[in-house]
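quick one before i forget lol
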Amino acid sequence: MAGQVHLERDGDIAVLVIDNPPVNAGSHDIRKGLLAAIAEVEADDRVCGAVLIGAGGSFISGSDIREFDLPLGPPQMPQVISAIETATKPFVAALHGAALGGGYELALGCDARIAAPKTMIGLPETALGIIPGAGGTQKLPRLIGRAPALDLITKATRVDAEKAHALGMVDAVVPGDLRRAAVDLARTYAGRKRRVIDLPVRDESGVEAALARATRNARPHVLAAIHHICQAGNVPADVGLAAERETFQRLRIAPEAKALRHIFFAEREAARGKPGRAVKPRPLDLFGVIGSGTMGAGIATAILQAGKPVVLIDTDPAALAKAIPRIEGAIDTGVARGRLTAATATAAKARLVTSTDLTALAPCDVVIEAVFEDQDVKQALFARLDTVVRADAIVATNTSYLDIDQMAAVLSAPDRVIGLHFFSPAHIMKLLEIVRCAHSSDAAMATGLWVAKLLGKQPVEAANAFGFIGNRIYAAYRAACEFMLEDGALPYQIDLALEAFGFAMGPFAVADLSGLDIAWTMRRQKRAQWDLANRYVDIPDQLCEMGRFGRKTGAGYYLYDADGTKQRDPQVEALIIAASAQKAIVRQDLSAADIQMRALAAIVNEAALLVAEGVALRPGDVDVALVNGYGFARWLGGPVHWAQQQDPAVLAQACAQWVEISGPARSLADLRVLGVQTGDTA
């Protein structure tokens, strides 16, 4: 059933109930219903005021962004808001659940705004490549000041009701009967209007600092938002509103906004996991984490900050002793950056229990191992866990590459084993791969997805296969970049080209940051399995043999100053040129466009193979993984979305070239599984 607006009476106050489950999106039907109801209120002499309130759990969660790819039919939200503002009767917005985007702009059109305590409020449109288009840039500075409006809009920030009240975004926070309070308030407003658009812009202090924060590395749509916020109060209101709307309409159909809408929906879909899974997750009251190194401590920190207790296990008492201040320091950093209050930080620290005895894990609902990346070590640990943890407890591994089915095989009940692949630092990075093994039960997988939600992570479900989704694709990407070292490009040229494309960091800067020795260890473990027919670049091995492990040693692909500033290293560049000569490779000049296409072709080809093999459930899951875990530009929508925008023939040729130079182990994918219509490419 399409969304509806119900007009109800409470004495002389009309109550307009917005009913569009599940989250009351501001769809065309809702806008049409609101406009009709507002007209009815205005025409009814028995009514002296009105209340807007949502049915169910939210006010209005935002506009229905599924409509944004289509022409927006009348009435559009500015028309609805104008009808409220020009009405002779006051309107009170009763906010609860979510009042975001167009929902909060509707509230800004009302004469007063009150909110339930847990309401989330904001104008997060810039996260979707657009700007508030129904008065947000013109009204919020009038209500709370230009500087806080700049921070809220450009950062797409959502605030809770208490913070909103402190800023002036709402007039009151109502812990009790919200509807009753709104009706009573509307009655007190009878006979008077208080239009936000008529107010002057509030306190102008802090604007320069806010502008500096907002413009730093800002995308074009953010710069547009800044422009309109700065225009508020400096141009006539009608001029400012019209200009804002024109910019919104232009940005709404731009490629960047389409890409951001794609990743928005892809993330929502990924969070649901495998379609048709109807079971509920297991209750999670107590977590166990094994291993107190970087990953284990980070996982424990994430859980503690989410409000759950953790039993942290390590057989080495010294390692545990080092982990505790590291965990507490990370929690304190959360306070310093405003993510946690001092009280919640103190409570989080108190929830940590440490032990060297695995039997301390007996009461845990889920146990996550993060020990040394060695199959024998992990299997031995799993065998011991089988005798320690509860029969209904979920057993998870944080492995990046190892076969989880081999670990699960030593358990009496392998159906409770899943992968929970966190990314470092685990308490900060958004991506969490939920790995489905051969025997993983639906309940175990549902619980894994619930862990992600609890920790505020973006989950992506993957089948158990080497590297899962992200690391397998990144391995192909890294190989393509290493081939380019031999073929004619230097590390800085590749890094600059890919950063210009949109990656947060180039591959060789990333390698230096993470440590070249980590991948080197894995390569040596796999050396016996190498197929000598496949192309192999030994440049990173040579660097490791020289003790150049990256930033931590002051030298890797680059040289690093004491403050971490990198610079080109002639020694490394000479080593690379010599490596090409040793293999009789004639080095060629590779343009930035060449570098970008070769790297992206490797990513896209591997993505198509993953989807075809069922490692990734859907093409969009690849985009979610690469955007949230590997620095792929969000504003490009992910590699699959990018691929769908390219010339199919050119992309198919680039993929074929990538496979040709890789060696016989590399397969050419059929890009049609990604929605790229290339014809027969396999």
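fyi The CA atoms of residues 9 and 540 lie 74 Å apart.
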